[in-house]
Amino acid sequence: MAAMIRRIISTPKAPAAIGPYSQAVLVDRTMYISGQLGMDPSSGQLVEGGVQAQTRQALVNMGEILKAGGCDYQNVVKTTVLLANMNDFVPVNDVYKQFFSTNFPARAAYQVAALPRGGLVEIEAVAVLGPLTDAS
Fold this sequence. Notes:
This protein is of the alpha+beta class. The protein contains two helices and six strands; from the N terminus they run E-E-E-H-E-H-E-E.
């Protein structure tokens, strides 16, 4: 069996990892993007403005990581949304659909006891590198 190639994806345009993990890992054509908080990459602090501002920043951060790996939002096939409060589900969706507007990725959403740094939302993703064609 031929060895698969693993490439670590990293960009200074997204917050640095705050633990022993990579921003993303690309194996073959599949990119696994670590959970993104609504952190400003330059200050390392959560953005102000509540859950919608944090959601927007988390998705902008994800976009920078996607770009560093040769992808964009169209390449995302699965996301997981972690919420500090499930009552934020609708406000998070209002922002989410600005980044994913058609052919939505598969998704799961969970309320968790707490998120790092007191975040209100964290979003991780799986993307597939290269052009994708939608079946009719």
